[in-house]
Amino acid sequence: QVQLVESGGGLVQPGGSLRLSCAASGSILSIYTMGWYRQAPGKQRELVALVTSGGSTNYADSVKGRFTVSRDNAKNTVYLEMNRLTPEDTAVYYCNAEGSRWTDFTDFRSWGQGTQVTVSS
Fold it and tell me: Tens digits of per-residue pLDDT, 54-92?
């Protein structure tokens, strides 16, 4: 079992900032990628940003230059720094991690429970 616990969502005014955190725990041997997805009402879940164990990153075009994803490999934690937020960023943000388990060396793909981010004046 691999669990992801997110924190840091909330209500923020347009132009404001928020920082999300997600910590992974359980039978983790290694984590290849960690990242964030989001789902707005009536829309499909979409990739926001991800980061590999080596530090390579990938961002959705809509957040480039405003969001920064980072991770602490020692803590199995990924962060999402969100700046210059707009109402279009309002969504439930989900943490995602892909890696392998030490128990049987199989791969896993786990999701967090989601955290609400609302951008409104």
Answer: 999 999 999 999 999 999 999 999 999 999 999 999 999
Q: Judge contact between 49 and 69, C-beta under 8 A.
A: yes
**Beta carbons of 94 and 111 less than 8 angstroms apart:** yes
Residue spans of beta strands (DSSP E) within 8-66 = 10-12, 18-26, 28-39, 46-52, 57-59
Task: Compute the CA torsion angle 19, 72, 6, 24 (nearest 10 deg).
Answer: 170
Polymer length in residues for the chain: 121
> Whole-angstrom Cα distance, residue 119 to residue 14?
6
**Tokens standing for residue 39:** 């789902």
